[in-house]
Write a structure and sequence with these properties.
Shape: globular
Largest sheet: 6 strands, parallel
CATH topology: Rossmann fold
Enzyme class: oxidoreductase
Strand order of the largest sheet: 3-2-1-4-5-6
Family: Belongs to the fatty acyl-CoA reductase family.
Oligomer: single chain
CATH superfamily: NAD(P)-binding Rossmann-like Domain
Number of helices: 10
Catalytic activity: a long-chain fatty acyl-CoA + 2 NADPH + 2 H(+) = a long-chain primary fatty alcohol + 2 NADP(+) + CoA
Function: Catalyzes the reduction of fatty acyl-CoA to fatty alcohols.
Distance between the termini: 26 Å
Pfam family, one: NAD_binding_4
Number of strands: 6
């Protein structure tokens, strides 16, 4: 589907005067989204960026280094000239926190401010390593979705919660694959049933065993990586990443209540086609 100019203008207009919370803003997709919003809709009110950091000042420095200081902001920087930093400071509000914690680890005052202001949440935070440790991947991709949902329910004027998943939650099936949501317990392997709570208990039990056996860090990493792959393949998914992303979708669907939730499933993400910098790509892809 090609979005026409009128549709694109309507999308841009929607962001005017809005307060948006973005998780995963230091990632590839996150910084592309942030740059585009600031470029096509400079009348957006606030962009709260949840960043892993010890405090808000550290979060601000990380955003400067890893996001707004990158080449993709070149066009925006040229447009605003000497006023670029002031423009960023006026619009962008880094928050030190993490999706795996209740209320993202924000203090009461900050939580109240953000939940009162936010119109849109874009959850792009994820561990994307296909073969990540099961506990690490579960914390961000599964429990993170749960915390996002809990936080969204505290936002008094929320208009949309947009969750970034992946097309590969559908596994390695061939042919026409319909976009249908995952229900709790769904799997890709016939005759199996997935219990997310049991998976969490399995992780905790494995961690306790490793600790009791005084396992080295290397042994813990190896065991947890192998556990993730084993559990993923048991239920029909090819790797830990897509398995945990599928569980995250299940939790969102189960816990959403009346929340206006949209789940998007991008496939392969390549370089920028046209603007702001044709062909731009970050890192080795």
């Amino acid at each position: 589907m090609v979005i026409g100019e009128m549709d694109a203008a309507q999308v841009a207009a929607f962001f005017r005067g809005k307060n948006i919370l973005i998780t995963g803003a230091t990632g590839f997709l996150g910084k592309v989204l942030l740059e585009k919003i600031l470029r096509i809709q400079p009348e957006v009110t606030k962009l709260f960026l949840l960043v892993r950091a010890t405090d808000d000042e550290s979060a601000r420095r990380r955003v400067q280094t890893e996001v707004t200081g990158r080449e993709i902001f070149q066009v925006l920087r040229e447009k605003h000239g000497k006023g670029f930093e002031d423009f960023i400071e006026e619009k962008v509000y880094p928050l030190a926190g993490d999706v795996m914690y209740e209320d993202f680890g924000l203090d009461t005052a900050k939580l109240k401010e953000v939940s009162k202001d936010v119109d849109i949440i874009v959850n792009g935070a994820a561990t994307t390593n296909f073969y990540e440790r099961y506990d690490v991947s579960f914390d961000t991709n599964v429990l993170g979705a749960k915390q996002i949902c809990a936080f969204a329910n505290k936002c008094t004027k929320l208009k949309m919660l947009l969750h970034v998943s992946t097309a590969y939650v559908c596994g390695e099936q061939e042919g026409l694959i319909l976009e249908k949501p995952f229900m709790m317990g769904d799997t890709l392997r016939e005759g199996t049933h997935l219990d997310i709570e049991s998976e969490l208990n399995l992780i905790k039990h494995t961690q306790m065993e490793l600790k009791a056996n005084c396992a080295t860090d290397k042994a813990q990493r190896k065991t947890m990586k192998e556990l993730g792959l084993k559990r993923a393949r048991r239920f029909g998914w090819p790797n830990t990443y897509v398995f945990t992303k599928a569980m995250g979708e299940m939790l969102l669907g189960h816990l959403r209540g009346d929340l206006p939730v949209v789940i998007i499933r991008p496939s392969i993400i390549t370089s920028i086609l046209k603007e702001p910098l044709p062909g731009w790509m970050e890192g080795v892809r």
